[in-house]
What does this fold into?
Amino acid sequence: MNFDQHAETYQHEVEQAAGVSVEKLAGEKARLIAQILTECIGEPKRLRVLDVGCGIGLIAHDLERSVGALCGVDTSLRSLELAIARAPETHFVCYDDTRLLGGG
It folds into this structure.
């Protein structure tokens, strides 16, 4: 599936279908991830975390403040462009179904 065609409208489409704020949901997911990391591993600020399928960076926006370093990986270049704008402290990389390609 080519996710580039959905990148611009993803947030709106999910909000319409689910009837909830995607940003609030992503913020809650980031909070829970940080809590679980703390309980299971220790201080999240000491960790490097990989977000596979990061999409437009909704979770990265909140999670990047809680961990030492965050890297987001996705197959959609357009989604990664939007993610970079949303979560500037996160390192994003494109996966082309074969290898990871350097990114912003």
Summary: The longest strand covers residues 69-74. Residues 22-40 form the longest helix (19 residues).
